[in-house]
Write a structure and sequence with these properties.
The protein has 18 helices and eleven strands. It has 393 residues and is of the alpha/beta class. It folds into two domains: 257 residues, Rossmann fold; 86 residues, 2-Layer Sandwich (formyl-coa transferase, domain 3), CATH 3.30.1540.10. It has a six-stranded parallel sheet. Strands 7-8-9 form a three-stranded antiparallel sheet, with helices on one face.
Length: 393
Amino acid sequence: MSNLLEGVKVIAVEHMEAMPAASVWLADWGAEVIKVEPLQGEKWRGGRKTADNWAFHLLNRNKKSLALNLKTDEGRDILYRLVKTADVFLSNYQLGALKGLKADYESLKKINPGLVYAFLSGYGTEGPDKDERGYDFTAAWARAGFQYLLGEPGTPPAAERGGMMDRTTAPHVVAGVCAALLHKAKTGEGQLLEVSIYRSAVWTVALDIENTLAGRPAERTSRKKPMTPMINHYRTKDDRWFELAMLPVDYTWTDVFKAIDRPELEHDPRFSDDKARMEHTEELVAVLDEAFAGKTCDEWETIFKRYNFIFAKIKSPSEVITDEQAIANDFFADVPHSEANIRVVNSPVRFVQNPASVRTPAPEVGQDNESILREAGYTQKEIEGIRQRGVIH
């Protein structure tokens, strides 16, 4: 059974996380992804052997590697020959660097007018900061409002989680590429699409941004004074935490008071209706804190399921990777490797008829040089000459 994107050829001049996170989805879904990287390998390899670099495997499995010196005319000629038969070109190099390499959209569309060209930047291609570098720590966490909004009021900004917004931005690239490929299938026309980490981050925190646009500036919320105590987290007797997400809140309180064995609170004037509960939120949270501290998290899980509550234990990554629900739904996959199989997070979209698959480990630097060039029409003698001239690895 073929993968959905089998036959789609992607050239990815990429590095670090954001664009590789996009191209790995395409690779998992069956596209041929040729990762073009410098002769020494892209910097996310970190100088380590690929077999030892679990992070590199996460974002580069199922790809081919072409180690190519794009600063030479001969290296660019090889890129152009590949682009001529490609469907998609991806890059998160700086725009100035792409122009210097003559690998910008204007240069490549002359070679392949039907090319879908996706460019990912930190801040976009217009405005005063269009040339600024921006990792997700800066362009997303800091600038888009995450660090301002996360955490308790009066505490320092929340610490970043590495690459989280890179991997949130990547699906925006993938969605744009798939839409552009559909447009190309209908019209034969290529497309330039632009995505930025900053813009994707603003979309991700859009509810808070939208409230601010409407004149209600978003601020940090204390767990002791939430919008509703039914969307909040609580500590249990065994020092575990769980999250409640009870919507709509006005229809759940009878069962909540029964669950904590305090049915009389339903008629307490402070908590008798939604308006009163909003006015006495801090008092109600204190009541719930005391009640939930009286039983273990497992005990509360049994009670919550009896009342059909919407909740989740707050789990550590160590618990996530052994979660029966995650395992049952194939959240993880084993990458076959000659030294030892490597377990990675699987592609998040499940195609029932044409499942995505993790077929090969991340390539070593330039591992596929010869096969890629032979497919592009180069003879073995020409390939040897190209190598001797320092154009390929």
